[in-house]
Automatic annotation (TrEMBL):
Protein species of origin: Halomonas elongata (strain ATCC 33173 / DSM 2581 / NBRC 15536 / NCIMB 2198 / 1H9)
Enzyme nomenclature, EC number: 1.4.3.16
Gene (UniProt): nadB
EC class name: oxidoreductase
Signal sequence interval, chain numbering: none
Region (Disordered): 495-526
Domain Fumarate reductase/succinate dehydrogenase flavoprotein-like C-terminal: 426-511
Protein name: L-aspartate oxidase
Catalyzed reaction equations: L-aspartate + O2 = iminosuccinate + H2O2
Keyword annotations of the record: FAD, Flavoprotein, Oxidoreductase, Pyridine nucleotide biosynthesis
Family matches, as PANTHER family: L-ASPARTATE OXIDASE, L-ASPARTATE OXIDASE, CHLOROPLASTIC
Annotated GO CC locations: cytoplasm
Molecular-function annotations in GO: L-aspartate oxidase activity
């Protein structure tokens, strides 16, 4: 095993990791792990945009209020205000870097860039780059990261666990290269920007979803996890059983798209006065209910009434992608289905990204800041990446002390883990999570999921005892334990709130709910 020493180590190359690297690199040298183009995380696939108070007719209090409503009583208002307050400055920073946001051609517009509206927002405050905002942001950030002399970008290493010392501080990460060789990257400060846990489920909106690996690496060092039961399902993923996942942006509904049931009629106006622009938890449950009522595998999202010119103008990426699959969305409605999209829970942090483990930080979807509460409002996620990357950078610029404790040693085994076993167990995990711990949960299903996941862990554990370092095996082990902790949080919440809907306890249990907090020691062996 080779050993190298680093100042700030950032694990994850999506929007949060890239933004942090740029913000801190003028003060401290950075090593950024982005193992492959697929490791850009969910940020690259974000279509809708970034929520921020930009129009003269909008205001911070309105954005805060909308976020609190969407979070269904579980948001941390301080985190909400911290994030919303930084929105305009974060957008100005991206503009200064050259992100090609879509201009507003109306000379009378109050803001020079086009703003759209999405579910839960009471105003047009979503700035976007056509319908491929994530890609535009990531590519712009990557170009600046690649040019910065004090950022070392590593594509050849994948982190499999964090390094602890005997004082309980994080001291870096153990990583594997493409040949399977182990590397210890020692660091003064380590930041997780590894994404969420949508990969625990079978159907997701991302082709390469994370499975909570970063969350569990932090938990192994004793970090507190929070609100794991709140997994968001995006209401509208393209339904194509034979094709790769593809998200149909919420902006499609924001610009006037209608959801149609099996009878060809709209169903959202009868469920919520906000209709198709209700928060995502409400729309996803409504679609799930309509699918069960009709017996269909999907519903329809119809934008034909907008006209082909408007569709091509606002949604060129979606139009082209659907056309590549034989679907002309200007003439036919889009078949859509909910899919796992965003983890509102994660590693508990403060407003600087600090976790409960000294020298360990978490930003982006891997973190639980309190912003989203029980349900993330559309386009607040990229805003959170930017706001907390900047807050974390300010904290890291002030850090000086370093732990002098001894490292906790680890002796790896030498035996490989069967590829077939890993694939079998991962598919079984995703199957039970999708069937029992998805949009609607029941007590009996959660109990069944707990038993099944424990059994899967028991099957894998003996193989890990003597296993050689293995990225796939480590990822599965992290995922299985996080799935079990997610089920434990869901079983413990005896109410329905936001993204956690259990008909066996359908009402809010308390007017002042508390977050769910859990540690790895909540699991019995294995």
């Amino acid at each position: 095993m080779t050993e190298s020493h680093h100042d700030v180590l950032i694990i994850g190359g999506g929007a949060a990791g890239l933004a942090l690297a740029l913000e801190i690199a003028d003060h401290r040298p950075v090593t950024l792990l982005q193992p492959s183009p697929d490791a850009r995380g969910a940020s690259r696939w974000a279509q809708g945009g970034i929520a921020a108070v930009l129009a003269p007719s909008d205001d911070v209090e309105a954005h805060v209020a909308d976020t609190l409503v969407a979070g269904d009583g579980l948001c941390d208002e301080a985190a909400v205000r911290f994030t919303v307050d930084q929105g305009p400055a974060a957008i100005e920073w991206l503009l200064s870097l050259g992100v090609p946001f879509t201009p507003d051609p109306d000379p009378n517009a109050g803001y020079p860039y086009h703003l759209t509206q999405e579910g839960g927002h009471g105003a047009r405050r979503i700035i976007h780059a056509d319908d491929a905002t994530g890609r535009a942001v990531i590519e712009t950030l990557e170009s600046h990261v690649g040019a910065h002399p004090d950022i070392r970008l590593r594509h050849d290493l994948s982190a499999i666990e964090l390094i602890a010392d005997t004082a309980g501080h994080c001291r870096g990460a153990r990583c594997l290269d493409e040949a399977g060789n182990l590397h210890a990257l020692m660091a003064r400060d380590t930041v997780l920007a590894t994404g969420g846990a949508s990969g625990l489920y079978r159907h997701t909106t991302s082709p390469h979803p994370a499975s909570g690996e970063g969350m569990m690496m932090a938990a192994e060092l004793g970090a507190e996890l929070m609100n794991l039961e709140f997994q968001q399902f995006h209401p509208t993923c393209l339904y194509d059983p034979e094709g790769a996942p593809f998200l149909i942006s919420e902006a499609v509904r924001g610009e006037g798209g209608y959801l149609l049931g099996g009878d060809g009629q709209r169903f959202m106006p009868d469920i919520d006065p906000r209709a198709e622009l209700a928060p995502r938890d409400i729309v996803a449950r409504a679609i799930d209910g309509e699918m069960q009522r009709s017996g269909m595998d999907h519903v329809w999202l119809d934008i034909r009434h907008l006209g082909e010119e408007a569709i091509r103008h606002h949604f060129p990426t979606i139009h082209a992608h659907c056309a590549s699959r034989g679907l002309d969305i200007a003439r036919s409605p889009i078949p859509v289905v909910p899919a796992a999209h965003y983890s509102c829970g994660g590693v508990s942090t403060d407003l600087t990204g600090a976790t409960t483990v000294p020298r360990l930080y978490a930003i982006g979807e891997v973190a639980c800041t309190g912003l989203h509460g029980a349900n993330r409002m559309a386009s607040n996620s990229l805003l959170e990446c930017l706001a907390f990357a900047r807050g974390c950078a300010r904290r890291l610029a002030e850090e000086t002390a370093e732990s002098g404790a001894l490292l906790v040693e680890r002796t790896p085994g030498t035996r490989p883990v069967s590829r077939e076993l890993i694939a079998e167990l991962r598919e079984a995990m995703r199957g039970v999570m999708s069937a029992k711990v998805a949009i609607v949960r029941h007590d009996a299903g959660l109990d069944e999921a707990a038993g099944t996941l424990a059994g899967l862990s028991e099957r894998l554990a003996p193989h890990l005892a003597e296993a050689a370092p293995d990225a796939d095996a480590a990822s599965l082990w992290h995922a299985l334990r996080l799935a079990r902790l997610t089920v434990a949080c869901a079983r413990a919440r005896r109410e329905s709130r936001g993204l956690h809907h259990n008909p066996d306890c359908p009402l809010h249990a308390d007017a002042t709910p508390t977050p769910s907090r859990i540690h790895l020691n909540a699991l019995q062996t294995p």
